[in-house]
Amino acid sequence: MTESDYRIEKDSMGELKVPAAALYGAQTQRAVDNFPVSGIRLPRRFIQAGLLIKRAAAETNRELGLLAPTVAEAINKATNRLLEAIPMDQFPVDVFQTGSGTSSNMNLNEVIATLAGQQGGTVVHPNDHVNMCQSSNDVIPGMIHLSAALALEQQLVPALRQLSDTIKQRAHVLESVCKTGRTHLMDAMPITMGQELTAWASQIDHDIDRVQECRRRIQQLPLGGTAVGTGINAHPEFSRRIIQRLGGDTGLSLTPKPSLMEGLSSQDSAVELSGQLRVTAISLHKIANDLRWMNSGPIAGLGEIELTALQPGSSIMPGKINPVIPEAVMMVSAQVVGNDATIAMAGQSGSFQLNTMLPLIAYNLLQSIELLANASSLLAEKAIEGFKVHEEKLQQRLAMNPILVTALNPIVGYLKAAEICKQAYREGRTVVDVAEEQTSLSRAELKRLLDPALLTRGGIHEGDKTKR
After folding, report:
1. Is 11 a domain residue?
2. Is 38 a catalytic residue?
3. Are residues 380 and 299 in the same domain?
4. 314 catalytic residue (yes or no)
5. CB under 8 Å to 40, separation ≥6 — which residues?
6. Of 4, 12, 184, 315, which one is the catalytic site residue?
7. The one catalytic residue among 38, 314, 351, 442
8. Would you say residue 16 lies in a domain?
9. Is 229 left (phi over 0), alpha (psi -120 to 50) or beta?
10. Which residues have CB under 8 Å from 143's CB, separation 6+?
11. Is 93 helix (H, G, I), strand (E, B) or coil?
């Protein structure tokens, strides 16, 4: 690049070359130069939250008589323009930067100030105007909470509800399809496929409840705490008013953090939410793994269901189709569990009045929410909604399941039932055939007692059974 491709910007540390086309200034450029660590930038939703906060701050400061109406209007127009289509190339600061996220806060301030000056001809200063009544130390934690709250509201909770609804619809359709239950991956008592899917739906519903329980604390913002939580250089009304305005702008039930100092010094709410995201990831892993096993085969595996064929499964074995969606979901689960470990470690980094791993928490928390939302929708739309059930195979295996003999325990005793089970398995015969030989029960009574559909509803009640 030539000299004409740069301009000279100045900050409190002196002059610096900045790309001529960049909206950001010297402090952002220093961060770009100082932190060439990963090339990973903070997510779009995080930047969106920052823009929303900066716009609400300008309007609040105008309302409080602290900011000239012309400057507030220029900031308002600039943030609105940026929110329409966030130019991510103007937010180049690496995730691995100063732990307070000061570089990212100043990146926002500089971009807004430059664009505001270009649009209205008004001189707008990144620190004195855009950052008025704020500090990186309260803005970045505020951005973490606001971006996470928006992501939960707009992405994760709707996706989990979609998944739960899809599972429940399939469960209803399959409520009378009996199959062999499994414990330890070994044959167990019969269940219906509807019952199996209903258990999945219950997991997801509980995950939604857990996430919802965190939302109240995630929707508490520490804005107005400024440098150390005392509110230095902020108007006494700033915190209440900006958060009220942000609530109106976003439709979220936002409230001030009861202790602004806690909001700066700790990230306990983010750690809590991440823990619930980990539980959700484990639920998705369980469901995806069940689908993978049920789909296994088609000849040598369980072959109970057939997932929708989405792509060739092998570069060498023609016709092979793999359970790609469950596998992708299981990898998402692994990533979210890893993110949670990172967030937990970062949450420990609150020393005195500030946590100093804020950008890392922001990145991992938002990535976990986005991954879980996308994986939930994929699992619903491309795996659960369309899988086919091989009912004939299910019934054949169920008829040969020697564990059905469990229903005879109260009548013939555990030891006799075990003997029948082992003989049926050894000779490849049904329990009804062997039990008819080994007990005094009639074939009709045995069929009644060992009816798989009846067993999925708990079997014949104790008072209805023949006494030993």
Report:
1. no
2. no
3. yes
4. yes
5. 94, 95, 96, 363
6. 184
7. 314
8. no
9. left
10. 46, 49, 50, 53, 101, 362
11. coil
